[in-house]
Amino acid sequence: xxxxxxxxxxxxxxxxxxxxxxxxxxxxxxxxxxxxxxxxxxxxxxxxxxxxxxxxxxxxxxxxxxxxxxxxxxxxxxxxxxxxxxxxxxxxxxxxxxxxxxxxxxxxxxxxxxxxxxxxxxxxxxxxxxxxxxxxxxxxxxxxxxxxxxxxxxxxxxxxxxxxxxxxxxxxxxxxxxxxxxxxxxxxxxxxxxxxxxxxxxxxxxxxxxxxxxxxxxxxxxxxxxxxxxxxxxxxxxxxxxxxxxxxxxxxxxxxxxxxxxxxxxxxxxxxxxxxxxxxxxxxxxxxxxxxxxxxxxxxxxxxxxxxxxxxxxxxxxxxxxxxxxxxxxxxxxxx
Length: 336
What we know:
GO terms for molecular function: hydrolase activity; ribonuclease T2 activity; RNA binding. The chain has 336 residues and is an alpha+beta fold.
């Protein structure tokens, strides 16, 4: 027979055991959070649950209600119109300003910089990005893709026009891992909305025909960051658009079908963008001559409200602007 006394003891014991668990969950605080990226706003960041698929509006200010105590890498905010009203967002998605005594004393956790499979395959444990952009005519004309790139078949046959830089990938990068940071969650399968596919296909043309390349990029790189698949690819495409419209894309498009001097290309960019930004650019050429890719280092966190140049200046430097390209570079035109 269960007595009231036993129930009281059980309730007291349960509360004592539960209190430490709750106390480590979050710290109530007050302030405002200004969104720098259109990140997902989760009901539970541990479960990655997001009823209504709520995302932040870049530039909008939100009221802060709490932070997670363990690491201060998540912030709880109020998102008007959402249900529930309070949501968790990655602290790196924006700027937090805390009021008076409510400013938290918890410091962000120190990343595990030890080399090894665990350290180099943990989502969110990175310190910069590499944005890899393809010059499709140069890639498709001279790279041995062995019939596995339907977009290249279409470009080479003249069925698909290609006059802009396209997305190879947006790669989270961790310095201590070299090129081995990736494959953070094999269970996180790519699931893009039709709307997203339609928007990114002109900038990642493999999506016109299949999703294999996108699935590979997501599995290797996308699973290592914290945005949803839709937002990750939209962020990447927004960055590609910025580069394509910048002095980088302009100079390439001004010289389609021509040979250019690598030194002259670099000097033009230095004159227009500044030396510090150009120190974050690396070229890639097939056979050392045909431009196929431009890689740009970007910082973590990304600030989609900032200019491209200011973002580049905050990122780690590349080893060489020229990459594997020789002194004379050819900017290939589409079609054989």
